[in-house]
C-alpha cells in the first residue's frame, strides 16, 4: 500500500494519526480451529492506547474494534440499484432487487453488509461519536488489502451482501476519501466484485474523489447528523451543515447527469451511485422536537432525492462526552419517527399534519392512528367508494392493502369479512370504516377512542 | 382413479406437464391422486388415462402460474391436487387469481408466500465453508435445512451470485451442485456437514462486535431469524452470551464519567483539524461579498435551502440583472440562473446580443424558498419580510458594482428595488429611477415566460424580454467607457467597508 507522508505534527498527534497499516498477516487470517473463542471474548475494552498495542493487532482484533466503532450507523440497506450477477463465471457476486439480511443481532438490527470503519482514528471531535478525537476508545486501522480480503471472504461464505465502508477522518478529508475509494476500486477492478458497496462520503472531500466513489459504489451517503445547524455547530464543531447539504446536492446532480439521454423507456437508470444516497440523523442528542426532525427530512427527500433517512436514537456510548444528555432517547421515539417518515413518503401526509400541537409524536399511539383519532370528521370511510387518498389514511390499511382493495373493487363489492385476507389490520381499522356487513355505529364517537389503541401505561425501562 | 407419482427432482415442472396432460384428457381433479416420490422423471406411474370430463386446455395468466408453482414447493401433501383443481377453475373463469375470498386461491397465495419467505431465508442463512477443490476454482460447501423442500427454487440465485466458484448446498431433501458453471441436483443420501472453516471465527468476531448492547430487542431478532435456523448458523451460539452480558455493558457505559478536559493528544488533533479545514480567503471584493452572502442567516429560508446563491459577474459590470430567487437547480449548483428559467434568460440575452459574462446577475432573495412535496420542491414566492431581509445583500451588491442600469426581472425584483411590485404589465419595458438616480428597467421574469400556458403568449413574452435586454445592452454600452473607469477608483473604499463588516 502506498502511504503518503504525514504532515508535520506533534509526536503524540502523529502517532495517533498515522499507525502502520501493515500487510495481511496470514497466520491471523486462518487461525487453527482450536482457537475458537468459546466463550466469546470481546476484545474492545476502553483504555489508553499506546504505540505498542497498536502495531501488533491481529486482523481479528482490528475487526472487533472497527466493527464496534461502525455499529452506530443504522443503515444496512442493500436493495435496489444496478442488476448485476456473475453467471458468466468471471467475477463474484450479484446485486439489484431486494436486499437480503444475512443475520440479525440481538439488538434486532439486521446484518446485511460488512459494516466497518477503515479506521477509527479521527481528527474531528463530534460529541455524540465514540470515535471523536478526545475519546479514549482503542484505535485501529485496516489496510486496503485487509478490507478487501474480509469483504471477499465473507461474501464467498454468504455472510454478507457487500461492504458498507465508513471511516474516521485521518490526516485530511481528501486523504481519507482517497483510501476508501482505493478499496472500492480494488474490489471492483481486481477482485471482480459485483456485490453491493456503500461508501460513506467524507464531508469536504474533493469533487474528483466523490465522482470516483460514485463510479464504484452502489450507494453513497453522508450523515446530516443533527436536525438543526445550530446543534451541529455545538456538538460537531468541525462539521458544517452547508458542506453536508452541498455534498448531497452534488450527488443528486451527478446522478441526474449519469442518466441523461433518453432510453427507449424514457428513463435511464443512474450509473452514478445507482442505489441512490441516504443519510442519518441522531435523535435525542439535542433538544429538537419531532416536527423539526421531520421537516428536515421532508426537505432532504425533496431536495436531494434521498432513498432513505435513518433515525438513530441517541444511545449511550463508552466514554461519553460531557456535552451529551445523560439519558438516552426512548427507542419508541425512533420507531415513531420511522412511522411518520413512511407516512410522509408513501401515504401523502404532510409534515404539518403529523405531530399535533406539541410538535412531538405520541409515544403511545402510532402517528396515523393519532391523526385519525384527532380528525374524526374524515371518518368513517366507505371502503367501496372512497378514493385512494382517503383509504390510505385509514389506520390498519397499508399501501398493499389499499392496492388489493382497489383491485378487488373492480371485481365486485368488498365486504367487511374480506378485509383481513387483504392484509388489513381489522381491529385497528374497524372504527374508521363502513363496509357491507359492518358499520362502526358509536365506535367513532366513543370518548375513549384513543384509549382503545394506546398501549396501557408502562414504565419504559432505560437500561 | 389415477395415481401420479412426481419425481423428487424436477417435481414442479413434472407436475406442470402432468397437469396439462390430464386436463387435455379431461380428467377431473377428484379423480387424481398426487404423490411426490421416485428418483428420476421416468418413474411415473402411468395407467392409461380415462376421460371422465370434457378435455380442456389450461390457459392461465403468468402471475397465476408463478404463484402456483411457488406454492408447489410447500411441504403440504395436498398441494398438487389443490393446484390442479385451481388451474382448471382458473382456465374456465370460475375463479380469479388474486381473489383472496376464494379459499383455494387464498391457500395457494399463502403457501406461495411461505415458500417465498423460506427461499429468501435460504438465500440469507446458507453458510458456506471452504473445502478442498479441484482445479483453479475455489470450492465451498454448505448444509442447510429449509422448512419446505424448496432447494430447486432457491439454488439458481447462488449460481448467479457465486459464478466463479464451485459449491454444494446439501439439504435433507436434495443436494444442489454447481461445478464449472453447471448447476445440477441430486438426492441427498446422508446429512453432510462440511468441516469448520477458519473464517467463521472472524465472522463471529464481527457478529459480536456489531451488536449494540444498549438496544437489546430479542423479539425483533427472533421474528426475522427464527430459532429453527440457528443450528446451522455459526454465529447463533454467541447470542445467549451477548444478551446476558448486555446489561452489564450498558451499566458500565452509564457509569463512565465523561472526561472534562481533553488530553494533549486530543488538543493536538483539534489544532490539526482546524488547520486542515481552514479555507483560503476569497480573492477580490466580489468573492468576499459572495462568501459573506453564503453565511447569511438573516431569515428562516437558510434552514431549508442548500446554500445562498450570491450574484455573479464582474465588478465593473455596467448592467446588473436582478431576478426573484434561486430555483431548484440554482440552489443545488450555487449559481444564479442556471435552471430552466436561466435557459430562457440565456436565450433572450443571446437574441439581445448581451454577453452574460459582462453583466452582473443576481437575485432579490438569495435563498431558494420552496415547499417540499415528496421528491420535488415546489417554488414559493418570497414574502415581503424575506425580500426586506435580503435587500441588505442586494444593496451591498449594488454598492459594490455601481451599475449604470439595473434590470428588474419580475415583481419581486421590482419590489426589492423600487419598493413596489404591482402593475407589472403596465410597467414592463419602462425605465424608473431609484432614489440614488440609478435607472431601473422593468422586465418580465424568465420563469413567468415559462409558466405561460399559451405558446403564442410565451413567444411574445420571450420576445419582449429580449427587447428589454437589448435596451439594457445598448444603455450599458452607452454608459460604459470613461465613466466606469472613473467609478472604479471611487469604488475602492467600499471593499474596505465590506471587509470590516
TrEMBL record, chain A:
Keyword terms of this UniProt record: Iron, Iron-sulfur, Metal-binding, S-adenosyl-L-methionine
Compositionally biased region (Basic and acidic residues): 81-90
Superkingdom assignment: Bacteria
InterPro entries xref list: Aldolase_TIM (IPR013785), DNA_rSAM_put (IPR023874), Elp3/MiaA/NifB-like_rSAM (IPR006638), Endo/Exo/Phosphatase_dom_1 (IPR051675), rSAM (IPR007197), rSAM_sf (IPR058240), RuvA_2-like (IPR010994)
Molecular functions per Gene Ontology: catalytic activity; iron-sulfur cluster binding; metal ion binding
Required co-factors: [4Fe-4S] cluster
UniProt feature, compositional bias: Low complexity: 1-22
Protein name per UniProt: Putative DNA modification/repair radical SAM protein
Species assigned in the record: Roseivivax lentus
TrEMBL record, chain B:
BP-aspect Gene Ontology terms: DNA repair
Compositionally skewed regions (Low complexity) per UniProt: 478-489
Positions of transmembrane segments: none
Biased composition, class Basic and acidic residues, residue ranges: 491-501
Domain Uracil-DNA glycosylase-like positions: 310-470
Record-linked InterPro entries: DNA_repair_put, DUF4130, UDG_Type-4/5, Ura-DNA_glyco_family4, Uracil-DNA_glycosylase-like, Uracil-DNA_glycosylase-like_sf
Region (Disordered) residue spans: 477-501
Keyword Metal-binding: yes
Keywords assigned by UniProt, alphabetized: 4Fe-4S, DNA damage, DNA repair, Hydrolase, Iron, Iron-sulfur, Metal-binding
UniProt-recorded Gene Ontology molecular function terms: 4 iron, 4 sulfur cluster binding; deaminated base DNA N-glycosylase activity; metal ion binding
Superkingdom of the source species: Bacteria
Recorded family membership: Belongs to the uracil-DNA glycosylase (UDG) superfamily. Type 4 (UDGa) family.
PANTHER family (UniProt xref): TYPE-4 URACIL-DNA GLYCOSYLASE, TYPE-5 URACIL-DNA GLYCOSYLASE
Name listed for the protein in its UniProt record: Type-4 uracil-DNA glycosylase
Organism whose genome encodes this protein: Roseivivax lentus
Amino acid at each position: 500500500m502506498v502511504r503518503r507522508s504525514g504532515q508535520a505534527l506533534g509526536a503524540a498527534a502523529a502517532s495517533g494519526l498515522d499507525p502502520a497499516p501493515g500487510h495481511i498477516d496470514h497466520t491471523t487470517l486462518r487461525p487453527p480451529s482450536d482457537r475458537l473463542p468459546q466463550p466469546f471474548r470481546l476484545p474492545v475494552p476502553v483504555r489508553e492506547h499506546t504505540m505498542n498495542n497498536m502495531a501488533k493487532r491481529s486482523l481479528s482484533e482490528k475487526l472487533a474494534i472497527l466493527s464496534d466503532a461502525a455499529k452506530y450507523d443504522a443503515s444496512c440497506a442493500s436493495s435496489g440499484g444496478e442488476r448485476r450477477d456473475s453467471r458468466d463465471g468471471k467475477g463474484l457476486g450479484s446485486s439489484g432487487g431486494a436486499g437480503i439480511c444475512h443475520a440479525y443481532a440481538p439488538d434486532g438490527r439486521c446484518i446485511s453488509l460488512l459494516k466497518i470503519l477503515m479506521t477509527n482514528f479521527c481528527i474531528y471531535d463530534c460529541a455524540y461519536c465514540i470515535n471523536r478525537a478526545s475519546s479514549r476508545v482503542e484505535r485501529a486501522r485496516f489496510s486496503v488489502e485487509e478490507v478487501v480480503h474480509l469483504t471477499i471472504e465473507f461474501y464467498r461464505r454468504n455472510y454478507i451482501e457487500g461492504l458498507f465502508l465508513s471511516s474516521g477522518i485521518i490526516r485530511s478529508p481528501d486523504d481519507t476519501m482517497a483510501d476508501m475509494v482505493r478499496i472500492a476500486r480494488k474490489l471492483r477492478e481486481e477482485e471482480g466484485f459485483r456485490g453491493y458497496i456503500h461508501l460513506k462520503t467524507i464531508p469536504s472531500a474533493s469533487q474528483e474523489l466523490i465522482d470516483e466513489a460514485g463510479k464504484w459504489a452502489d450507494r453513497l451517503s453522508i450523515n446530516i447528523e443533527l436536525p438543526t445547524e445550530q446543534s451541529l455547530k455545538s456538538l460537531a464543531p468541525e462539521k458544517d451543515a452547508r458542506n453536508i447539504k452541498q455534498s448531497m446536492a452534488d450527488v443528486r446532480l451527478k446522478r441526474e447527469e449519469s442518466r441523461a439521454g433518453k432510453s427507449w423507456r424514457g428513463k435511464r437508470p443512474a450509473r452514478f451511485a445507482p442505489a441512490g444516497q441516504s443519510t442519518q440523523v441522531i435523535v435525542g442528542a439535542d433538544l429538537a422536537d419531532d416536527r423539526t426532525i421531520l421537516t428536515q427530512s421532508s426537505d432532504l427527500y425533496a431536495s436531494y432525492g434521498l432513498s432513505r433517512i435513518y433515525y438513530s436514537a441517541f444511545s449511550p456510548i463508552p466514554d461519553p462526552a460531557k456535552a451529551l444528555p445523560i439519558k438516552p432517547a426512548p427507542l419508541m421515539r425512533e420507531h415513531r419517527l420511522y412511522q411518520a417518515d413512511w407516512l410522509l413518503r408513501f401515504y401523502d401526509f404532510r409534515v404539518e399534519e403529523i405531530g399535533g400541537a406539541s410538535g412531538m409524536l405520541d409515544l403511545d399511539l402510532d402517528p396515523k392512528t393519532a391523526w385519525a383519532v384527532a380528525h374524526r370528521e374524515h371518518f368513517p370511510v366507505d371502503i367501496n367508494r372512497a378514493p385512494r387518498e382517503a383509504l390510505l389514511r385509514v389506520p390498519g390499511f397499508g399501501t398493499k392493502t389499499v392496492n388489493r382493495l382497489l383491485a378487488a373493487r373492480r371485481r365486485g363489492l368488498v365486504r367487511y369479512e374480506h378485509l383481513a385476507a387483504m392484509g388489513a389490520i381489522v381491529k385497528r381499522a374497524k372504527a374508521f370504516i363502513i363496509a357491507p356487513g359492518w358499520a362502526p355505529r358509536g365506535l367513532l364517537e366513543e370518548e375513549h377512542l384513543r384509549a382503545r389503541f394506546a398501549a396501557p401505561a408502562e414504565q419504559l425501562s432505560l437500561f | 382413479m389415477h395415481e401420479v407419482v412426481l419425481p423428487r427432482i424436477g417435481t414442479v415442472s413434472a407436475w406442470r406437464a402432468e397437469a396439462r396432460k390430464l386436463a387435455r384428457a379431461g380428467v377431473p381433479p377428484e379423480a387424481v391422486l398426487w404423490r411426490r416420490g421416485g428418483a428420476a422423471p421416468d418413474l411415473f406411474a402411468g395407467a392409461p388415462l380415462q376421460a371422465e370430463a370434457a378435455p380442456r386446455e389450461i390457459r392461465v395468466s403468468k402471475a397465476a402460474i408463478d404463484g402456483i408453482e411457488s406454492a408447489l414447493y410447500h411441504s403440504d401433501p395436498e398441494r398438487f391436487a389443490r393446484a390442479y383443481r385451481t388451474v382448471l377453475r382458473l382456465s374456465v373463469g370460475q375463479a380469479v387469481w388474486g381473489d383472496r375470498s376464494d379459499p383455494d386461491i387464498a391457500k395457494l397465495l399463502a403457501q406461495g408466500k411461505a415458500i417465498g419467505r423460506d427461499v429468501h431465508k435460504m438465500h440469507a442463512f446458507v453458510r458456506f465453508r471452504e473445502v478442498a477443490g479441484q482445479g483453479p476454482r475455489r470450492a465451498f460447501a454448505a448444509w442447510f435445512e429449509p422448512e419446505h423442500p424448496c432447494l430447486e427454487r432457491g439454488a439458481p440465485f447462488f449460481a448467479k451470485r457465486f459464478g466463479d466458484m464451485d459449491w454444494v448446498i446439501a439439504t435433507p431433501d436434495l443436494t444442489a451442485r454447481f461445478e464449472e458453471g453447471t448447476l445440477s441436483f441430486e438426492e441427498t443420501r446422508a446429512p453432510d456437514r462440511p468441516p469448520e472453516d477458519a473464517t467463521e471465527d472472524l465472522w463471529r468476531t464481527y457478529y459480536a462486535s456489531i451488536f449494540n448492547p444498549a438496544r437489546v430487542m430479542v423479539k425483533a431478532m427472533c421474528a426475522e431469524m427464527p430459532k429453527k435456523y440457528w443450528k446451522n448458523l455459526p454465529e447463533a451460539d454467541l447470542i445467549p452470551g451477548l444478551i446476558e452480558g448486555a446489561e452489564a455493558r450498558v451499566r458500565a457505559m452509564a457509569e463512565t464519567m465523561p472526561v472534562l478536559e481533553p488530553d494533549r493528544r486530543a488538543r493536538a488533533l483539534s489544532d490539526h483539524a482546524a488547520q486542515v479545514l481552514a479555507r483560503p480567503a476569497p480573492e477580490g471584493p466580489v468573492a468576499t461579498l459572495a462568501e459573506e452572502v453564503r453565511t447569511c442567516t438573516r431569515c428562516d429560508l437558510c434552514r431549508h435551502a442548500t446554500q445562498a446563491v450570491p450574484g455573479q459577474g464582474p465588478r465593473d459590470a455596467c448592467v446588473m440583472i436582478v431576478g426573484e430567487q434561486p430555483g431548484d437547480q440554482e440552489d443545488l449548483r450555487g449559481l444564479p440562473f442556471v435552471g430552466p428559467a436561466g435557459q430562457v434568460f440565456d436565450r433572450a440575452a443571446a437574441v439581445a446580443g448581451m454577453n452574460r459574462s459582462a453583466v452582473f446577475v443576481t437575485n432579490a432573495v438569495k435563498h431558494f424558498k420552496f415547499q417540499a412535496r415528496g421528491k420535488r420542491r415546489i417554488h414559493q414566492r418570497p414574502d415581503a419580510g424575506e425580500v426586506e431581509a435580503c435587500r441588505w445583500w442586494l444593496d451591498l451588491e449594488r454598492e459594490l458594482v455601481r451599475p449604470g442600469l439595473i434590470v428588474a426581472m419580475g415583481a419581486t425584483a421590482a419590489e426589492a428595488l423600487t419598493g413596489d411590485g404591482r402593475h407589472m404589465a403596465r410597467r414592463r419595458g419602462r425605465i424608473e429611477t431609484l432614489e440614488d438616480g440609478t435607472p431601473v428597467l422593468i422586465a418580465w421574469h424568465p420563469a413567468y415566460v415559462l409558466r405561460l400556458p399559451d405558446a403564442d403568449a410565451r413567444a411574445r413574452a420571450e420576445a419582449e424580454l429580449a427587447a428589454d435586454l437589448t435596451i439594457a445592452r445598448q444603455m450599458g454600452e452607452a454608459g460604459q467607457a470613461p465613466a466606469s473607469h472613473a467609478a472604479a477608483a471611487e469604488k475602492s473604499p467600499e471593499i474596505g467597508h465590506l471587509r470590516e463588516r
